[in-house]
Amino acid sequence: MLKINLKEIPESPGVYLFKGEKGEVLYVGKAKNLKNRLFYYVKGPLLSPKIQRLVETAENLEYFLTQTEKEALLLEANFIKKYRPKYNVLLKDDKNYPLLRLGLQEEYPSLQIVRRRKKGDKALYFGPFTSTRGLREVLKLLSNIFPLRKCSLSEMKRRKTPCVYYQIKKCLAPCVKPISREEYQKLVNGVIEFFQGGGKKLAIKIREEIERLAENLEFERAAFLRDRLKDLENILEKQAVVLQEPVDLDFWLNQKTENKEYFIVLFIRHGYLYGFQTFDVKTPLEGSALKEVLLQFYLDGKIIPPEIYLPQEIEEIESLEEILTENAGYKIKLLIHPDSEEFVVLKQIAFKNLQEYILSEKRREKPWYAGLSEEVKKVLKLFKEPQRIEAIDLSQFYGEAKVGATVCFFEGEPDKSFYRRYNIKEAGRDDYSMLYEVLYRRLKRGLEEGTLPDLFLIDGGKGHLETALRVLEDLNITDLEVRAVAKNKKRQPEKVYIPGRKNPVFLPKYKEVFHFIGRVMEEAHRFAQTFAEKKKREQDLSGYLDKIKGIGPKRKEILLSNFKSLEDLRQAPLEKIAKLPGFNLKIAKTLKESLTQQSD
């Protein structure tokens, strides 16, 4: 389950990613204040079932800081397209993302949201966009600046009077009003310039046009454009263009430590910050790994922009340029960070996010990320901080199907490759003897394979602890610590029995260690109980098959491998049973008739 330390989250705009156990991105979201937004996931009063499921499934959180909310929106869209997270609204491919179509061949072009680009269509397309809702919000703002027609061509031909959009000044009503093509084309050109990253240039042109109209005493038209300019400046204020020129480039920054070299690359497209990537490599024997990283990064199928800005000079820069140019098919320049104001801001953005990445990686390198292992060591009175912890639990199904199970947590997270199940070999045994058998088998195998944990947690009290200590003594194990965890009536961990101490230690209820131990013990209980229930179903099915005429050991084995319970076999079609190896229609009918009589 995702656990977020809100004290570490900055109060800054940004994008956050929820990741699963295997590192897969489960959800991408944006926020103008990351701390406030993530507070909702941690302490929100009412989470929908879907969000609750996301929080329970997610195991890790990453976030990227931005300067404005608009920048966060752009990053969110790019990350969703890149990672295609399970919990975001996803489309199968780009052709299903919403596109903007501008029919330039039409007398009065309009902007339309479409899902597919028509083959042979001479219209101009923008996109794709990952959010139809967000796209509609942008269009709503743009309609104040560029009041293009909203109706379809067929509707435009039928219309006799202006629609409501004309009344609210969001359309010039070319359907019924005498609008010149030249005047309308200026609006169309403005839309094109805006979506190609020329928003600021467009504002300058509108401002110049206002001055020209005022000089010509066309005050009504000048006032109209003045209002449009205010709306445009409001949009541009939220966009955070990082470069004035609409250029494509990559901006690199690195930092070396004793054991690693960390990198961040910012992707600038049309002057906007589109995204980033961070990673690290082992520190080379001498110098920087920048040159090797550049080659591996760009020759791995990445898009190579015309300009790549580096934090320092590197050897063989001309040769590297030639390799990248040949790979890209156009001239590539490797340049050093300039001292201009724009690039100083870029460096600040890169540095801020690189430091966040380095800090998060250092937390990962420390056992259990943020010191939970220290808390476990202190509360459980251990000799050292544990990395691998195993827990054992016993289970049975109404006195039958007696089993044991062990689960493993490595650095605070489940390691299911070390989960183990055990059938109790001797019937009629008590808890202590069953515990001895299961723990002995697990630890004996661990000695042979070299897979002993640092700490073993036993579900039980003082007697269970003494049983575990007897197993350690019989196997001559001296470097494994064991603790017995006693639960209260609500099945919550309450106190811990420690070897050599007369009285147990009560767990602090409101500390992280309490929740962690509870999580480990609950997982052990779930795993053992699930196994007991499965074994009981198999025993019921196996015992029933022994009574049916014509079902010998081989056919019984085939049935047990294909059906988990009597109910599964009862629901199976006759034809499916008849097609099993060693079966035919007659045997299948006999089996089905017996099942019917048994259910009656």
- Strand percentage lies at 15-25%
Average pLDDT metric? 80
Count of alpha and pi helical runs: 20
> Percentage of helical residues?
40-55%
Number of strands: 19
Assembly type of the shown chains?
single chain
InterPro entries: GIY-YIG_endonuc, GIY-YIG_endonuc_sf, GIY-YIG_UvrC_Cho, RuvA_2-like, UVR_dom, UVR_dom_sf, UvrABC_protein_C, UvrC
Domain UvrC family homology region profile: 265-472
GO cellular component, one term: cytoplasm
Domain UVR: 200-235
Q: What can you tell me about this protein's structure?
A:
45% of the residues lie in helices and 19% in strands. The two termini are 45 Å apart. The chain is extended. The chain has helices at residues 34-43, 49-57, 69-83, 132-145, 153-158, 164-167, 181-195, 199-215, 219-239, 290-298, 317-328, 341-365, 368-379, 431-449, 462-474, 512-545, 553-562, 566-571, 574-578, 585-599; strands at 14-19, 25-31, 60-65, 99-102, 111-114, 124-126, 249-256, 260-269, 272-282, 307-310, 333-336, 388-397, 400-410, 413-414, 420-423, 455-459, 481-487, 493-497, 505-506. α4 packs antiparallel against α9. Strands 12, 13, 14, 15, 16, 17, 18 and 19 form an eight-stranded mixed beta sheet that branches. It has five domains: 6-90, 3-Layer(aba) Sandwich (GIY-YIG endonuclease), CATH 3.40.1440; 99-239, no CATH class; 249-365, Nucleotidyltransferase, domain 5; 376-536, UvrC, RNAse H endonuclease domain (Nucleotidyltransferase, domain 5, 2-Layer Sandwich), CATH 3.30.420; 546-599, DNA polymerase, domain 1, CATH 1.10.150. The protein is α+β, with helices and mostly antiparallel strands and 600 residues long.
